[in-house]
């Protein structure tokens, strides 16, 4: 396969119709990654993050892409590295499952569209009894879930996230009880990841912190993105409550020794 040069990233951005947020993060060079094409006409594409997350796009009949994926999967097994593959196409998923079936599991997830009118017109809480602050290094050092290792995994480094990412948290008596951060971000999109302390659930904290995240996205001309596993009913209903609509299923394949996505 051919490794696409950075000079062609803008052309690819104009070509792809729909892709995970991390694909745009690569194309905007916000995170490290690579783009491979089956040939110079770019009929089929394979996107790869530094941490081992992949996405296939284009003509699913490409044998070169499937062979490349098989080689990458084998490499990840031998070197104990991550292998997580996104597919938005039933045709691609069938090809992947046929070729990689013995070494991967699969799960189905939803990708939502954002309805800004639904978000703006919903009833919002103006305040809580907890302090809401933007995430910086001191908050990461005593985080609830999203620690330095998390940012190294998805952002290449904590410094890169602090410079280019989006994140808010709620504090109670100097303890962080809820966090909302951009697991991936590009110049156009920001995908949200949320966690709330189990002792503080049922108080509307996830909804409140998500609103702060979404307000910040809109203020900075970013389109918020919401994805979840199809059986994550809590995340599904929270997304709908916040104005995310039209859930579309897609498939994620992951190496059998790797836990399911935390996103």
UniProtKB/TrEMBL annotation:
<protein>
    <submittedName>
        <fullName>GNAT family N-acetyltransferase</fullName>
        <ecNumber>2.3.1.-</ecNumber>
    </submittedName>
</protein>
<dbReference type="GO" id="GO:0016746">
    <property type="term" value="F:acyltransferase activity"/>
</dbReference>
<dbReference type="Pfam" id="PF12746">
    <property type="entry name" value="GNAT_acetyltran"/>
</dbReference>
<keyword id="KW-0808">Transferase</keyword>
<keyword id="KW-0012">Acyltransferase</keyword>
<dbReference type="InterPro" id="IPR000182">
    <property type="entry name" value="GNAT_dom"/>
</dbReference>
<feature type="domain" description="N-acetyltransferase">
    <location>
        <begin position="130"/>
        <end position="263"/>
    </location>
</feature>
<dbReference type="InterPro" id="IPR027365">
    <property type="entry name" value="GNAT_acetyltra_YdfB-like"/>
</dbReference>
<dbReference type="InterPro" id="IPR016181">
    <property type="entry name" value="Acyl_CoA_acyltransferase"/>
</dbReference>
């Amino acid at each position: 396969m051919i490794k696409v040069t950075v000079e062609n990233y803008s052309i690819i951005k104009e070509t792809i119709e729909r892709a995970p947020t991390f694909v745009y993060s690569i194309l905007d060079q916000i995170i490290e990654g690579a783009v491979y094409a089956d040939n110079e006409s770019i009929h089929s594409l394979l996107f790869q993050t530094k941490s081992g997350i992949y996405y296939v796009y284009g003509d699913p009949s490409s044998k070169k892409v499937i062979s490349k994926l098989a080689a990458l999967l084998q490499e990840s097994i031998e070197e104990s590295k991550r292998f997580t593959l996104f597919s938005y196409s039933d045709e691609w998923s069938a090809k992947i499952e046929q070729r990689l079936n013995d070494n991967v599991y699969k799960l189905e997830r939803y990708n939502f569209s954002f309805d800004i009118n639904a978000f703006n017109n919903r009833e919002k809480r103006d305040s809580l009894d907890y302090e809401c602050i933007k995430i910086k290094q001191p908050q990461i050092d005593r985080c609830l879930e999203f620690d330095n290792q998390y940012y190294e995994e998805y952002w290449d480094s904590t410094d890169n996230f602090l410079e280019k990412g989006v994140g808010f948290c709620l504090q109670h008596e100097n303890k962080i009880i809820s966090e909302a951060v951009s697991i991936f971000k590009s110049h156009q999109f920001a995908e949200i990841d949320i966690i709330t302390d189990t002792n503080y659930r049922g108080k509307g904290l996830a909804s409140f912190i998500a609103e702060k995240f979404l307000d910040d996205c809109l203020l900075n001309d970013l389109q918020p993105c919401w994805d979840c596993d199809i059986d994550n009913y809590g995340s599904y209903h929270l997304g709908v409550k916040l104005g995310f609509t039209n859930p579309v299923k897609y498939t994620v394949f992951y190496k059998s020794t790797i836990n399911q996505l935390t996103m």
